[in-house]
Description:
Elements: H1 8-17, E1 27-29, H2 33-39, E2 55-57, H3 63-72, E3 78-82, E4 88-93, H4 94-100, H5 106-110, E5 125-127, H6 132-140, E6 151-155, E7 158-163, H7 165-288, H8 293-394
Parallel strand pairs: 2-3, 5-6
Antiparallel strand pairs: 1-2, 3-4, 6-7
Helix pairs in contact: 6-7, 7-8
Amino acid sequence: MSTLHMENKTENDLHRRGTGSARNGRAATAKTAASIESKTKGPGRSAAGYLRDVPGVDPDMTCREAFDLLKEQPHLPCVVICGEGMRPEGLLMKEAFYRRLTGRFAADLYFRRPVKDFGEKEILALDIHDDPALMIRSALARPESRFYDCVIVTDNGRFTGVLTVLDLMKMSGELQEEAEERRKHTVLENYGHVSGMEKSLSEVEEAANLTLTECLRMKEWTAEGRRRLNEAGESYAEAVALMNRNQEQAERLIEHAGQISALTKGIADLADQSGLLAINASIEAAHAGSQGRGFQIVAAEVRSLASQTRKLAADISKLLESISELAGETGTLTATGVRRIESGAKRLSEGSRIFGELEQATDQVEKTGQSVYRLAQDTAKQAFSVKQELERTLD
């Protein structure tokens, strides 16, 4: 792409004189694409790479001069009419300009007239920093009569170059290619994400299934533990009942021992009385002399029997006292055991209650696990469907 350079002084002279030769500097040219690109660096595509350098001419340039300029540079699609500060004011398309000059007397009629009389005033001027997609949409929105006119590009209002319809089509095509590449890249990224999601959901599904299995096992263990606690509680209750009966029997044994002790005391009293009677009988037998000797022997035997009876009664009393003490201790130990067993039964009952709550919690976890499992399955199916759609999109 060729460029013509003009000094600031020449540009100012151009606006002052309004006449002269195009070869003497009446044509001001656009900045080079390299200088524009240096100002438009950044993400995304820029229109700078598609710009065409065309002359920016003074409004008072004659048609003859414009004709000579286009003839010398046949590749130019147009010239841009610029006012003060190189701000575009009109557009002179080469084909339309040539058609105006093909008449028999066109040269005599038009060559001396300024180009501003022939330039298109309704121009489309866009800034180099605009979004290329916006430029294309703006160009497509023009009336059909202006559709093939060049789009004038400025940099902060200063003319920099033009874009032809062909340039816009190329830019649109490359934008579409970029968009397609971005779409494919996005689809590939989404495909990777969905594949990872599908894998994660499979892991979630597996974990949920494992949770359900463990919940069922825990539920069985909880039910078994609760059953055994109930059995232990029942055994404790039976033990308490037996020990209560033992305590009652010990109390009755103490009561019977007391009664036996009272009877034994009565026996001892009778033995004492028998002994006294035997002594009296011996005394009377002694007074009787030889007639009472046999009776004296009987009295002696009765006295001996009374002595033995007193001794046996004393032994029985001691044994009954020992039995009463043992029975009392047994009752005390039994009462203590009953209290401890009742305390253990309460703990068993509390343990059974906790197992019941654990069983309810396990049921809730099982229900939650089933929900997670079903949700993971459904989501995994959806992820698989999305992945298939993405695969078809890539194809």
